[in-house]
Amino acid sequence: MLDEDLARIRAHRNNIHRYQRLLRTKLSELERQFIERRLAEEQAAVQSLAAETFPVAFMLPEGPARSARIGAE
């Protein structure tokens, strides 16, 4: 399952890079709008998939204890 998810993330990232390259070329306004929309869709998809694949989020504690620890490093 992880390999499949990583392959899907890679495919989305490849699409993102392709769309970014296309945006650096001469395009009609209609083509540019289409590519910008597709780019946004791909970015949302990769963010969603990454959040599902790697759900762990590390939170730093808030308050004075955090400041004391950060200053000690």
Report on this model:
This protein has helices at residues 2-23, 29-53, 64-72. By secondary structure, it is mainly alpha-helical. The chain has one domain. Helix 1 (2-23) runs antiparallel to helix 2. The chain is flat.
Condensed summary:
This protein is mostly helical.
Q: What composes the largest sheet?
A: none
- Alpha carbon gyration radius: 19 Å
Number of strands: 0
Number of helices: 3
pLDDT below 50 for ≥5 consecutive residues: which ranges?
none
- The number of distinct structural domains comes to 1
Category from helices, strands and their pairing:
mainly alpha
Oligomeric category: single chain
Layout of strands and helices, then pairs:
Elements: H1 2-23, H2 29-53, H3 64-72
Helix pairs in contact: 1-2
Give the key terms.
single chain; 73 residues; mainly alpha; 77% helix; 0% strand; flat
